[in-house]
Amino acid sequence: MNVYLKNILRFCIIVSLQVLILNKITLRWWSEPSGFPVFIPYIYPLFILLLPFETPVWALLVSGFVLGATVDSFGNTAGMHACATVLIAYLRTNVLSALLPRNLSEYSGLQPSTKNMGWMPFLVYSAFLIILHHLLFFSVELWNLSNIGQLLLKTAASAATSMLFIIVYLLLFTKQDNSRF
Amino acid sequence: MRNFIFFIRRFFNLILFLTLEVMCIVMIERTNTLQGNDIVSSANAVSGLVYKKQNDVVYYFGLRRMNDSLQNENARLRQIIEQYRSLDTLSDSLVKTKTQVGDTAKHIVRYAEYVYRTARVINNSVNATDNFITINRGSRHGIGKNMAVLSGSGVVGRVEHVSANYSSILSVLSAKQRVSARLKNIANGFVVWEGKNPRVLTMIDVPQQVEVKKGDSVFTNSYSLYFPPEVLIGTVIKTEPIKKNAMQHIYLKSSTDFANLQYVYVVENKMRQEKTQLEDSSIKK
Fold first, then answer.
1. How, if at all, do strands B155-162 and B148-150 pair?
2. Is the pLDDT of residue A99 over 90?
3. What percentage of chain B has pLDDT greater than the value 70?
4. Statement: B116-285 belongs to CATH 2.40.10.350
5. Which residue of chain A has the CA closest to B52?
6. Mutate to test the interface with B, among A74, A93, A150 (most CBs of B within 10 A)
7. Å from B47 to nearest chain A CA?
8. A33 to chain B, closest Cα gap in Å
9. Taking the model in full, what pTM does it have?
10. Domain ranges of chain B
């Protein structure tokens, strides 16, 4: 499949997963009795994480902005998601070149995935960027440092759940290598 | 000049990054201060339509719960009608005697100050710092900015963005919103949300000497520009005295279950413009 078509399709799938299903999950069954803040997982940054290796930085930034603004328009958050997504789109290239053994230009035609990078490097790469994204998003959302404990708690809880959902997504949507059978 | 172009080419990515971030911050800032931009809100045509389609699917799963809440509301309304009926017969006899003495009641013009419109909730959230609700009514149906929104059981919020067919409501579960409230005719204050539990609201600015019991009801008062008076906000769970200013925080269980909203009423206050004009003109003097 054409790489542009594939990514546009993935954009639609991930945004609708986020907006129509995950935004509606309010994990209240165990947050209700104590004063634990209500949170939801955000998996939509996965679209930025999965763009091909040779995507230029300006394209990453623009697609990050469009992705964030789309999620913003559904959640009435006006720029908060876009702000966080543009940051991780900017840092993605640096993180990748720090984690990968070879130069980024040698991976032409490939995209970051568990198959191309291995599970551990991919999880480190995605966890780092997801935590950064959540930290920026929640600090912009709460916008005061007086309850920094709640900010960190919300970030940690949300990032952990997001990673869980991202692993599930990867297990579901990665093409399995069936040649051994 | 050549150096300038070279500089831009070298730092193009950084410049683009900073430009986009500044754009985001401007967008966030605009929603915090002005009445908000309508394009990046769930009231726009595209996201409104998506939410409408989704709600058409999941709507049926909530019918039973909605039926129960409508039953409860009907029962409450019937009870109120009964109260008024007994009151009317009493006042009729009073009026009869009064008209003979002198017609003082003639100047009172009866008007419907509030217009109620029903709407279906097509999107809802309780997890953010400022929570929004999207409904399937817009300016085409007579919805305007700043109208109050109530559910069958109590206060919900205030209309923030309006498009032709959809509008989004800033719910009471928001750091930006405070509702002026009344506790048993003895104390007035404000109800705010502290941003943790979507069922718990906080009433502030109540003096410590006011005695509050668990289970007391808190209603909206007539000071509010948006909300009609005597709408239930919540019932008292516990109180907490604040030492530094001799006030107390009263924690309320909200009467509306924000996580399970199906239908809301949008309330238009016909007298609001007149009231704000009068108040503004008296401030200027």
1. antiparallel
2. no
3. 85
4. yes
5. A20
6. A74
7. 6
8. 9
9. 0.77
10. 2-27, 116-285
